[in-house]
Design goal:
By secondary structure, this protein is of the alpha/beta class. The chain is built from 13 helices and 7 strands.
Length: 362
């Protein structure tokens, strides 16, 4: 299928294709490297393309790979947009510049991991880290030994212990404890870090250098791994501000999900990457949305994350185990099927159109 041509097989290929496509249409490009190396010993960088008038009042940002391996999807959405001449023309005619940020977390993209080189989840990492208490997640501590077992695949006893926890506390409490973010176990799942990660600092710098001059900003952060296969849930990603929520609903419709109101497949979290915009662009009015495409059931995604976390803790693992774990991780965050590609690109295009209309109306 034609739409599948936008999806790449590796971070290195995705980066090369993004840079080539952006060069043909961008007014400004920049790269923000990190020190870590990729899975093929390649250099790692977050790359930026500004398309349109840098002096416009309105800006639409699209980001990919906040969660590393989710970049296979997000990069495809960005490449499709770069090839969408009618949409680029619509943005230009609407007075809206576009800022495409490719591979926010290039390490995770290259190594097929959700986290960065320090096992940090960038969507839990935007915390002050100034001595104030970090968000607590008391349920995680009891689960950590079960989530990161000594051997892989997990034993039958490990499976029974998890089932016992869910039976006693409920599936919703289990999902909260696992995925809301934690700051106590640096080797654990959904670890938010103890300082700003390099890739988060790069994103803050990108916003200051390329976005802060715009008065109205929309931001679509492409994610995968939650919800029904192929469905793109539109998740409000801003602060607890009813005026911002109302504006997001005006742009994207009544079906936009709001985690802190309990209407999203995502748990309510703090430290979202998108929240850095409030300090980086203090005079701008932002409207923030995560576009989350479903892949597999939640239990399968958690199992894949557990395996990838175990592999990080056990670099001595056999090559067969390594290949199996990496494949399971990729399958949890990216579907290589043409129908899924079509659903993703169709919904992504609609979201971009809605954002352009919203920015034009503001």
């Amino acid at each position: 299928m034609m739409q599948s041509r936008y999806f790449s097989d590796s971070y290195a290929q995705a980066r090369e294709r993004f840079l080539a496509a952006a060069k043909a249409v961008a007014a400004r490009m920049a790269s923000y490297p990190i020190e870590a190396r990729g899975a093929r010993d390649e250099a790692l960088s977050t790359d930026v393309a500004l398309i349109g008038d840098a002096k416009a009042e309105r800006l639409l940002i699209m980001t990919s790979a906040t969660h590393g391996a989710e970049g296979f999807c997000g990069s495809g959405c960005q490449l499709a947009l770069l090839d969408d001449a009618p949409m680029l023309a619509r943005a230009r005619d609407s007075g809206v510049a576009l800022l495409l940020v490719h591979a926010v977390n290039p390490y995770g993209f290259s190594w097929i991991a959700r986290t960065d080189e320090g096992n940090v989840d960038l969507n839990r990492n935007a915390q002050p880290f100034d001595g104030r208490p970090l968000p607590e997640n008391p349920g995680y501590g009891a689960l950590h030994p079960l989530l990161l077992p000594e051997s892989w695949p997990p034993t039958e006893a490990n499976r029974r212990e998890q089932e016992r926890y869910i039976a006693e506390h409920g599936l919703a409490a289990y999902a909260q404890a696992v995925s809301r973010g934690q700051y106590t176990h640096a080797d654990g799942l959904f670890y938010g870090g103890d300082r700003p990660a390099a890739s988060l600092l790069n994103m803050r710098r990108i916003l200051k250098e390329h976005a802060a001059a715009f008065s109205r900003i929309g931001w679509i952060d492409v994610h995968t791994g939650l919800g029904p296969r192929g469905h793109g849930e539109k998740i409000y990603a801003g602060r607890r501000d009813e005026a911002e929520v109302a504006r997001a609903r005006h742009w994207y419709g009544a079906d936009i999900a709001v985690p802190y109101q309990g209407s999203s497949a995502s748990v309510d979290i703090t430290g979202q990457l998108a929240s850095v915009i409030y300090d980086a662009c203090p005079t701008s009015t932002p409207t923030l949305m995560a576009l989350e495409f479903g892949t597999q059931p939640f239990a399968d995604v958690v199992q894949a994350l557990r395996g990838r976390n175990w592999l990080r803790a056990h670099p001595e693992a056999s090559e067969d185990a390594r290949r199996a774990i990496l494949k399971a991780t990729l399958d949890a965050f990216y579907c290589g099927d043409a129908d899924w590609h079509g659903m993703v690109l169709g919904q992504s295009r609609v979201a971009v159109l809605q954002a352009l209309c919203g920015l034009q109306d503001d």
